[in-house]
């Protein structure tokens, strides 16, 4: 089986070469074969998918089909899906069947997409390896002893393994780009505010942004055109005209100036990743681009600032999980009740202790501390000041170039368990992606060859605000000239 | 920076997360490692830098004070651990 792009499937459906029921059945069968090994899906919505496929076939036959009618996709299990289990990778939501759809889910349904189910993820999107899921780790289809990246590891692995042609993801510090890079697929995190966060279970609200993961830049452009858009139900959604993100895909790259941040090519970057990135840059030069060295001098401050801002916002967002309105409630907690602990508080404390995993608890505790009385200025305000310096670095660099390029991650996918006991070491692996979220800029990952041991390497492209169409254009032209994105793992 | 066990207890209490005695020390070690990373922020002078909370510097939108949601109480309470006659049930808080 060769790569099936979303575009080719949409065309085949529109031309009635295949029915959505046949297509969806084929993918469901492939999921059934592979999921026991890869664990990329938490929930497979077989009945819902087949019913939606039949509805799409009826619409296509009647000539009233939506643009992506009948095309199978999957949603990261962080997007609320009405009537379908939505766990966010956490035991605390083990029984949460959402009573409503996220904006992204609503819009992709309206575009005709058929959801096959919900993909695995790090608990509450907190992780870079997909090992913190309460539903078990996800394996990288290129080598099942390696991590797929995270937190959208299930989405990236599912696309790479051909279990679904495309899937949604979310990116707070790299969670679309890094797993896309580590699994050899394409993913884009839009400018903050472009995709509505309504119905996305919140991690760090000032950084969270949804986006697509697919084989090609063209597929990402098609999906993003339907995922983006102003939504009154998200208070940080930006009031802008709808965009067709496919409009510039074929624009020539002549005269494109690519900035290479010297901080992204220094110490810590693995040699084999560097070689792969250089080869991809050479291809872009052949296509007419020029490269120039730029500097992002505050890069080293991005991780410390992120690990204040994200946990602070998480501690606030995750206070909603209290065992009262939804989610897990502890059965026994009477032993905790005492002079200083009421029965209600005891219920909260035990429910949260049982429901949250260790990494989620750590981030809630860090966030609680930095927001506590007397520490707010020293931590949260300080981190927001650094955030501005980091954002200004990008603006300075973007006066010298049109897009910024570099690696997505310092190494290719590492072994499962390698960083499981060392959160700080895992945090440092996000050095090239986190600053983009702090600045609120769009970022894309596109396949750029392989490491010395045959694992995919991702090239990251960073644009200025609302530069998604340009990033997709650069990645599309690169993909027209290379075949890295067409390579498939033997699963 | 390293946190004391008492600080760990206090944060856990504020966060309403029960920490068993077995978890306290491991949590203390891991949190201290994370705060060691965070402390790198303090080396930078940020005097006069305006904090950034949203990259677009947008202001909060206002809307008409009108009802926009329909009543879906039953659907929303169907996912509650315990609800009865439209009310969420919690352990007794008043003696």
Q: What is the CATH topology of the domain at 5-43 in chain B?
A: Histone, subunit A
Shape of chain A: globular
- How does CATH name the architecture of the domain at 6-256 and 403-486 in chain A? Alpha-Beta Complex
The number of helical elements of chain A comes to: 15
Low-confidence stretches of chain B: none
Judged by helices, strands and strand pairing, the structural class of chain B is mainly alpha
Biggest sheet of chain A, strands in spatial order?
A: 4-6-5-10-11-9-7-8
How big a fraction of the residues of chain B is strand?
under 5%
What structural class is derived from the secondary structure elements of chain A? alpha/beta
Strand count, sense and closure of the main sheet of chain B? 2 strands, antiparallel
Summarize this entry quickly.
The complex is a heterodimer of chains A (491) and B (95). By secondary structure, chain A is α/β, with parallel strands linked by helices.
Give an overview in words.
The complex is a heterodimer of chains A (491) and B (95). Chain A has 491 residues and is α/β, with parallel strands linked by helices. Chain A has a domain at 6-256 and 403-486: Amidase signature (AS) enzymes (Alpha-Beta Complex). Helices cover 38% and strands 12% of the residues of chain A. In chain A, strand 10 and strand 11 (456-462) form a beta hairpin. In chain A, helix 5 runs parallel beside helix 6 and helix 9 packs across helix 11. The radius of gyration of chain A is 22 Å and the shape is globular. Chain A starts with 5 loop residues before the first helix and ends in a 10-residue tail after the last helix. Chain B has a domain at 5-43: Histone, subunit A, CATH 1.10.20. A two-stranded antiparallel ribbon of chain B has the order 1-2. Chain B has helices spanning 5-14, 21-38, 73-77, and strands at 83-84, 87-88. Helix content of chain B is 35%, strand content 4%. With 95 residues, chain B is mainly α. The interface between A and B is large, with 75 and 52 residues.
């Amino acid at each position: 089986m060769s790569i099936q792009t979303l575009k080719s499937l949409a065309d085949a459906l529109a031309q009635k070469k295949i029915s959505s029921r046949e297509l969806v059945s084929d993918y469901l069968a492939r999921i059934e074969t592979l999921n026991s090994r890869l664990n990329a899906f938490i929930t497979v919505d077989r009945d819902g998918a087949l019913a939606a496929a039949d509805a799409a076939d009826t619409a296509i036959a009647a000539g009233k089909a939506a643009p992506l009618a009948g095309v199978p996709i999957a949603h990261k299990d962080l997007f609320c899906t009405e009537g379908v289990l939505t766990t966010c990778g956490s035991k605390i939501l083990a029984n949460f069947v959402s009573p409503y759809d996220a904006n992204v889910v609503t819009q992709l349904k309206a575009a005709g997409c058929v959801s096959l189910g919900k993909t695995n993820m790090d608990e509450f999107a907190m992780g870079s390896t997909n090992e913190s899921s309460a539903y078990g780790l996800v394996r990288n289809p290129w080598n099942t002893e390696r991590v797929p990246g995270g937190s959208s590891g299930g989405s990236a692995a599912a696309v790479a393994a051909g279990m679904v042609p495309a899937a949604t993801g979310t990116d707070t510090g790299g969670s679309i780009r890094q797993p896309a890079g580590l699994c050899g697929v394409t993913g884009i995190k839009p400018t903050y505010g472009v995709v509505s966060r309504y119905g996305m279970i919140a991690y760090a609200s000032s950084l969270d942004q949804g986006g697509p993961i697919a084989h090609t830049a063209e597929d990402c452009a098609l999906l993003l055109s339907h995922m983006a858009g102003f939504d009154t139900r998200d208070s940080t959604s930006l009031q802008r005209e709808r965009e067709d993100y496919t409009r510039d895909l074929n624009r020539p790259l002549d005269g494109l100036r690519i900035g290479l941040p010297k901080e992204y090519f220094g110490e810590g970057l693995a040699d084999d990743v560097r070689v792969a990135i250089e080869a991809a840059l050479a291809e872009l030069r052949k296509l007419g681009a020029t490269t120039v060295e730029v500097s992002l001098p505050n890069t080293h401050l991005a991780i410390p600032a992120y690990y204040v801002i994200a946990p602070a916002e998480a501690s606030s967002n995750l206070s909603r999980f209290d065992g009262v309105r939804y989610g897990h409630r502890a059965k026994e907690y009477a032993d905790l009740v005492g002079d200083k602990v009421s029965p209600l508080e005891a219920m909260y404390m035990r429910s949260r202790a049982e429901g949250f995993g260790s990494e989620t608890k750590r981030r809630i505790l860090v966030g609680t501390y930095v927001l506590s009385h007397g520490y707010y200025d020293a931590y949260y305000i300080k981190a927001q000041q650094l955030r501005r310096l980091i954002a200004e670095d990008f603006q300075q660099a973007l006066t010298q170039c049109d897009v910024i390029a570099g690696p997505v991650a310092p190494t290719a996918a590492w072994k499962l368990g390698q960083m499981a006991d060392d959160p700080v070491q895992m945090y440092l692996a996000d050095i090239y992606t986190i600053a983009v979220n702090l600045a609120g800029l769009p970022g894309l990952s596109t396949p750029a060859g392989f490491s010395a041991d045959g694992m995919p390497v991702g090239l990251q492209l960073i644009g200025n605000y609302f530069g998604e169409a340009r990033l997709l254009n650069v990645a599309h032209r690169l993909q027209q000239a290379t075949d890295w994105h067409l390579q498939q793992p033997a699963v | 920076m390293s946190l004391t066990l008492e600080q760990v207890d206090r944060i856990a209490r504020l966060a309403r997360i029960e920490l068993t005695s077995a978890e306290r020390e491991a949590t203390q070690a891991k949190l201290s490692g994370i705060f060691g990373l965070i402390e790198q922020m303090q080396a930078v002078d940020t005097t006069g830098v305006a904090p950034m909370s949203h990259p677009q510097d947008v202001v909060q939108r206002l809307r008409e004070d009108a009802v926009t949601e329909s009543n879906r109480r039953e659907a929303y309470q169907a996912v509650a651990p315990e609800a009865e006659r439209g009310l969420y049930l919690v352990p007794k808080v008043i003696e």
